[in-house]
Amino acid sequence: MTILEKVTALLGEGAVLETGTDRVPRVAPGSPDAIALLLGTAHQEGWRVRIEGAGTWLQSDAPADLALTTRRLDRVPAIEPSDLTATAEAGIGLDQLRQQLADRGAWLAIDPPGLAGRTLGSVVSTATAGPLRHGFGPIKDHLLGVTFVTGDGRMVQSGGRVMKNVAGYDLTRLQAGGFGAFGVIVLVHLRLRTLPRADVTYVLEGAREDLTQVGEDIAAAGLTPAALELVSPALARRERWALAVRLAGSPALVAADEAGLGAASGGGRFTPLRAEEAHAFWMRLAEGFSVRPVTFRIGGVPTASDELLDLLQHQLGDEWISASPAAGAIRWTGDTNIDRLQRLRRTLAGLEVPLTLERAPWPLRGAVGHFGAYREGVGPLVAGLRRTFDPGGALVVATEGS
Amino acid sequence: MTYAMDGLPTHRRLPDLVVLPGTREELIAVVRLLAALGVPLVPRGAGTGLSGGALADEGSVLLVLTRLNRILRIDRDNRLAVVEPGVVNAKLGAAARPAGLQYAPDPSSQSACTIGGNVAENAGGPHCLKYGVTANHILALEVLLADGSLVELGSPGGESWGPDLVGVFVGSEGNFGIATRITVRLTPLPRAVRTLLADFNGLRTAGEAVSAIIAAGIVPAALEMMDQSCIRAVEDSVYAAGYPRDAAAVLLAELDGHNADAVIAETEAVADLLRKSGARSVRTAASEAERERLWQGRKKAFGAMGRLSRDLVVQDAVVPRSALPQVLETIATIAQHYGLVVSNVFHAGDGNLHPNISFDATDPVLKKKVEAASAEIMQVCIDAGGTITGEHGVGIDKLRYMPLIFDAESLGAMLAVRRVFDPQERVNPGKVVPLHACREWTSIRNAKFGVRSDRASFNSALEPVR
């Protein structure tokens, strides 16, 4: 029997989708149990499985015997507006989830890079936070718990669906940003907020250094923007660098921050965007990171932001870049090669700045790895965790590169 | 006796040896020596934990870290601090204050508890409603593993080197190693603060008021509740805060922010919601002294409950916030059924309950009743969709409840992760994961008591610490 025949016998014809251009069979199990069954079999049979969501973020090109897509896991078992929690399956598109939450007056305060239909599982497993990280924290801060399936088909639950939870070790945080190396996320318990009653975006254009100073002034003034993002001209599609400030919350808080914004603008003038302009601005920014072949993020301390932006410009060019200086997070997208990326990662490691490769074609991703330049003692721990959650190496994930 | 208990008086264990290293280097040397000898060790901070998590059995060495109490750096521009594990929570807060910053997690024991202990337990506190728990404030860690090796997790900017091992370590209750250097995130001190006290005729009404505030999209800095039993214990003590003794419950709500006008507007909105939800009266602290008095009553409530009886069982369940009214009523029914005094003081905004049972542990009949009532209360919280601990940790106290919320596979996974960090399970053995509920427990017990005593290992442990 071929792999395809075995999978069909195991999960039924409905679970097998079209074979991709690389002739790797694509399987879409319809339930977490089906994923457990599939991975348990893959482990026994020695199949190599790559994990996919909607196929809009990470390139679907890892060499594998089978592609497992979570796209049929698209249910939302619970939305609890009075508790501000929700439980959603990993394969639901963020756009659909957002709409269902909004219908109940709830909001998941994340705006990850990529297309609107990116799956929740993709966002969580890659921990790709967007500009809202400034005000609402990284992806992990929005998670109450996850259920995942290990590479040998075991179903594991972590956390729960309440606001605070210290029962047992926090395996949720291992999965958030694990890139699937420690299992396939199937269910996510989320922490929500109410839809902000006021939500406005202002943009200031100028020289990068001037805007960085304005960003620092805003932080020093004690303003609490939901997003404070420095965007390169090419990415913002503007003449000069843009500093975009999003204020979201109660009308009283937003009004107070609007008043403070003028004083902190360093003589420049923030332009308010109309609601549809603001929506288009942030969406264009998010989508920009899924257009070009390579995207990575780095995280330094806020005072290092300028130096890090200079470094990126010097080593790779800074055409498509977005930075949340106060959060110390910078995301770059463009075209580059293995040598340049490895050199950059080494240089950054010397500055105590990790580089996480978010997406790249397999030849580059496989060589460089999502992670690398580990600090002392981290490598053996990661390897041990890999062996624990994927003892047969069924899951094809470029953790450290070759 | 000092080291035989933590903050929970219902568990006692006597360690063979207590060691108080005075420097990081001494700590490393001791851990390497114990690794060579194969002796189990239990790290301990100030011993204020409430789950028996820092108790050491016979055959174990207790490593008390309170002398490692240096604040190594406060970086105002990058809003972070680097500290040793024995730094007291409140002292870090005081040190950050001149820079206009705060360390937000504020457990009730903050005047004594240590940052290392906070990291081990993923400690919470009243103001975690707005600012998040310890896990949200730890950027990087230097960790001493059981084998004596050092690893560096996380980075000062908060991005991890690979998977988020800082997130995995925080809350691991000392099972993964000892945090020897901790980089914490500091946040700006709010420039405006308003504190409200609302009192209610019924627990249910107070619970419903909490839901109304949360559903309105307002995030108070803190939203705390105390029931009548707790109110009276506080008012009878030296911590009397002026809570109305006849109220069935009081809610303490605090709002803060950088802009006074916005804080005042939100405070008025909350006061309005409280009145509409059935509050008998709502008053705002008129001065900083009054605010401190209101908070002192809340923060010292556990101490005040010591007046009620000689022993106290402190529970720490979490339920969905909308379930609070029903769960509080059911807890009252359980207390009535067993004829016990249950006092509730808790983080209502997070749904984090602390139903505390006052009793005399020397009475065996009463003790059995307390155990039965505790188990019933925990089951009620689990049935409501909740969990068994929100901030105190599992330790040994809640081991028996773990199989109620996790299946054998998930518990097995936790154990497997623990073995990655500590293959021999020598650090803080017997905590968090109930071995009997995991598939592999037989092999674990064999491995646990294996003792290495070869001369080469012993000698290598005495090499100078780098």
What is the residue-averaged pLDDT of chain B? 92
What is the oligomeric state here?
heterodimer
CATH class of the largest domain in chain A: Alpha Beta
Overall 3D shape of chain A: globular
**Gap between N and C termini of chain B, in Å?**
35 Å
Number of domain units of chain A: 3
Count of DSSP-assigned helices of chain A: 14
- How many whole angstroms does the radius of gyration of chain B measure? 23 Å
CATH topology of the largest domain in chain A: Uridine Diphospho-n-acetylenolpyruvylglucosamine Reductase, domain 3
Structural class given helices, strands, pairing of chain A? alpha+beta
CATH class of the largest domain in chain B: Alpha Beta
List the total number of helices of chain B: 16
Can you tell me the residue ranges of chain B where pLDDT is under 50 for at least 5 consecutive residues?
Answer: 441-466
- Could you list the spans of chain A in which at least 5 consecutive residues all have pLDDT below 50? none
CATH hierarchy: architecture of the largest domain in chain B: 2-Layer Sandwich
Large-scale geometry of chain B: globular
The side-by-side strand order for the widest beta sheet of chain A comes to: 14-11-13-12-16-17-15-18
**Named CATH topology of the largest domain in chain B:** Uridine Diphospho-n-acetylenolpyruvylglucosamine Reductase, domain 3
Q: Number of folding domains of chain B?
A: 3
Rounded Rg of chain A = 21 Å
